[in-house]
Amino acid sequence: MPQNSFPFDIFGFITNFFILIFVVVIIVFIIIIIVVYKLLHSNVDHVSKTTTKMPKLRTENTVTTFVKTDKGNLTKNKSSSKCKYCGEEIEEDIKFCSFCGANLTE
To answer: What distance in Å separates the CA atoms of residue 89 and residue 100, rounded to the nearest whole number?
Structure first.
């Protein structure tokens, strides 16, 4: 007579079933990680391989020289004189020297 009268071991089946499910879940998880990794790196490689030509901005020196000449004309139009205390060039109608601070209204 066989020792087990019940030929099907339910606990062994459930244990083996959980082990099988665990292995399948781990394999699916690894496949998902590999797919996501490949997708992310394929986008990065695609972006780095694609070069976009940016239009070169034209730098015009005429604008800067125009501003410089206007500033030069402004300073030339102002009448200037020299401070009687420090000798630096100052504007004609100011009351105090911007260099030495002397009172020029006297």
So the answer is: 11
The residue to which tokens 């901005």 are assigned: 57
Q: What is the pLDDT of residues 33-66, one digit of tens each?
A: 999 998 888 766 555 555 667 777 666 555 555 5
Q: Can you read off the two tokens belonging to residue 84? A: 């009687």
H helices within 1-106, ranges in order? 10-49, 61-77
List the beta bridge partners of residue 91.
Answer: 80
> What are the domain boundaries of the chain?
9-48, 77-106
**What's the angle, vertex CA 74, arms to CA 70 and CA 77, rounded to 5?**
135
Neighbour count for residue 97 (Cβ, 10 Å): 19
Six token digits for residue 53: 């030509």
What does pTM read for this prediction? 0.34
